[in-house]
Amino acid sequence: xxxxxxxxxxxxxxxxxxxxxxxxxxxxxxxxxxxxxxxxxxxxxxxxxxxxxxxxxxxxxxxxxxxxxxxxxxxxxxxxxxxxxxxxxxxxxxxxxxxxxxxxxxxxxxxxxxxxxxxxxxxxxxxxxxxxxxxxxxxxxxxxxxxxxxxxxxxxxxxxxxxxxxxxxxx
Length: 171
Hints:
Layout: H1 11-22, H2 38-49, E1 59-60, E2 63-64, H3 66-78, H4 86-89, E3 94-96, E4 106-109, E5 117-123, E6 126-131, E7 135-140, H5 144-149, E8 150-155, H6 159-169
Antiparallel strand pairs: 1-2, 3-8, 4-5, 4-8, 5-6, 6-7
Helix pairs in contact: 2-3
């Protein structure tokens, strides 16, 4: 596990958050064949990208923005192609209520009138995103800042189809 974006005293706290984000609560995700769960893939992508600095327009490990991170996570983790920009990603899939979030759902925020922000829901109240101040990390949806700026959620693909793609990729 990689945790590059925290001070050393915060490391145990972040490890606990990551463990909590990885522990399923509520209804189980559908499991097909013997492939990994959507949540497991998202946490693997977190480990891969954690601490990568934010860079507007960035698309690689030297610096990445939120929409490019979503492109990589969905392409590398699930074989799903997403548009490049948040503006286009918000048009993808079916809009869902925040109370119905499942791992793999996109979450959108409006921190200002000038731009939007996107992340992917991991589970248990956590989402993965490229933070402008802290780089790629897990954050809580109920954090004061994120809950105030929450805009909408979208399901880019039915979860059963995402799980099927994972099962096919792991064979």
